[in-house]
Write a structure and sequence with these properties.
This protein is mostly helical and 121 residues long. The protein is 66% helix and 3% strand.
């Protein structure tokens, strides 16, 4: 079993409290489900959120506009019409934004933005 940094441990606890399955978390982080449960029983989501550092994405130009519009609930086609880019270009930028943030999907990123853990500018 690998040893996790404090930062990664807090991220695992966050994920657990947000509904990720024990099996997935254990497999992805090379730790036992029992260990995750033990940590989560000791550390609340609020405490884990406070311990996880904020991330500034430093987005510029189209990526910043796209991220802000996605946060407002617009889809790729609507964003494309609004800023004059193709749906495919929006999709490419969207994937690059997720990669930069280290998020698996837009819901996760929107949650972190809403909680102040990720900043767009």
């Amino acid at each position: 079993m690998g040893k996790l940094s404090t930062q990664k441990k807090m991220e695992v606890i966050q994920d657990y409290h947000l509904g990720a399955t024990l099996v997935e978390l254990a497999k992805d982080n090379n730790i036992t489900p029992a260990t995750i449960e033990k940590w989560a029983n000791k550390i609340s989501l609020k405490e884990a959120n406070a311990a996880v550092s904020k991330k500034n994405l430093n987005l510029k130009g189209s990526k910043l506009k796209i991220a802000k519009l996605l946060c407002k609930g617009l889809n790729n086609r609507e964003i494309g019409k609004k800023i004059g880019l193709s749906k495919r270009t929006i999709d490419l930028h969207r994937n690059e934004i997720l990669k930069a943030a280290g998020c698996k999907n837009w819901t996760e990123l929107a949650y972190l933005i809403g909680r102040g853990k990720v900043k767009l500018t």
